[in-house]
Amino acid sequence: MQLSARESAGLLLVEVMEERIDAAGAIQFKDSMRELTAQGNGRVMLDMSRVAFLDSSGLGAVVAVMKLLGPDRRLELAGLTPTVEKVFRLTRMDSVFVIHPTVPDDMRHAG
Amino acid sequence: MAEIRRDIHLVIASEQMAVRQALAQLLADPGLRHLRCDLRGRIEIVLAEVLNNIVEHAYAEQRGNITIDVSIGPNGIGCCILDGGAAMPGLALPEGKLAPHDPQDLPEGGFGWFLIRTLTEDLSYRRQGNMNELRFRMPETICS
Predict the structure, then answer these.
(1) Nearest CA in chain B to A24
(2) Which of A94, A100, A34, A91 minimizes the C-alpha distance to A67?
(3) What is the pTM assigned to this prediction?
(4) pLDDT band of B142, cuts 50, 70, 90
(5) pLDDT the model gives residue B37
(6) How many CB pairs under 8 A join A and B?
């Protein structure tokens, strides 16, 4: 599971470099995110714009990552592709996360 | 009732990577490639959930085969999935109700059957000898 992380002004921006977060990759995704977020205590934004597909295991892993961060550290999502957005919407998990249509420009170019 | 035609027929090993490859192969099939984008997304979600459930629960990581038949017709898609794993508990499909979202303790699972039930029609399960048979349709007309 390839993730690319950049930190700037208190925000950790993590870009998922894979096309899928599915049953075959969900545990690896969760473990990699745990390592990446172990240091620091700021906001975390997950750029999902390359992820074309997420199944219920992948959704569970994203929820697990949010819980790992604890109540004081929100996990924000950006760039949900149509099928990924559908899974979040149908399971009503779209109400649980702060979801940005795209990574805000100032964050994309920061750092 | 129309018989399911055998337009696409796949037999795969009960493994997570084989499921991933089967989904890629199915979605690249000319029969599915030209469907409305929305229906392609729905079929990928449903088949992923059905197949992963078989790998994780019916075969419970034991070796076995899964047979996938997908029929594409003018009114949508019909699917028949066979496996030789353990029977569904109580010989019935899970209700697939979405757990209430407690912000203090969000669910990390239990989404699979909810998604399958939400996105399919005429979902049926039966145990035939040592086999599980799951059938469902995904009509063109439902948008969700």
Answers:
(1) B16
(2) A34
(3) 0.92
(4) very low
(5) 66
(6) 73
Check if A10 contacts B (Cβ < 8 Å): no
With tokens 């459930």, the residue in question is B53
A60 has a chain B CB within 8 A of its CB: yes
> A107 CA to chain B: closest CA distance, Å?
27
Secondary element (H or E) of residue B31: helix B30-33
Q: Which residues are registered as beta bridge partners of A30?
A: none
Query: Residue range B72-100: average pLDDT?
Result: 92
Residue B122 DSSP label: E
Quick check: A86 and B42 CB within 8 A?
yes
Reduced to 3 states, what is the DSSP secondary structure of residue B126?
strand
Residue pLDDT, tens place only, A43-77: 999 999 999 999 999 999 999 999 999 888 989 99
Q: Locate the chain B residue with the closest alpha carbon to A52.
A: B41
ipTM confidence: 0.92
Q: Does residue B100 sit at the A interface (CB-CB below 8 Å)?
A: no
Backbone phi, psi, residue A99, to 5°: -120, 120
Mean pLDDT, residues B89-93: 96
